[in-house]
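Meet our chain:
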Amino acid sequence: MMEISEASPAIDADSRLVVLFAGPRSGSNYLGNLLGQVPGTVVLSEIFNAQGMFGLNLYPGIEAELIEQAGSHATLLRLFRMNPVAAMQLLGFKFQVQRLI
């Protein structure tokens, strides 16, 4: 398992990260296309899709940094598929797990 650094070099520390979970045929691709037109916005579609992370190749700098941190492209894809929390941490998200019971 790879280590996740405190701040990911892949995403600027001043950036705001947002995850949108949407069902099929809900307009999420359209929303992503609209958001992608905003300067400085990075949109990665279907990052948890077993077939691959669509749109990552549009950002070669981010892709190269994520692959370097993961060790290989295959490991990066497997990480996003098998361990979404670690994958999101790799992108720079920070999680606080709270037990509700």
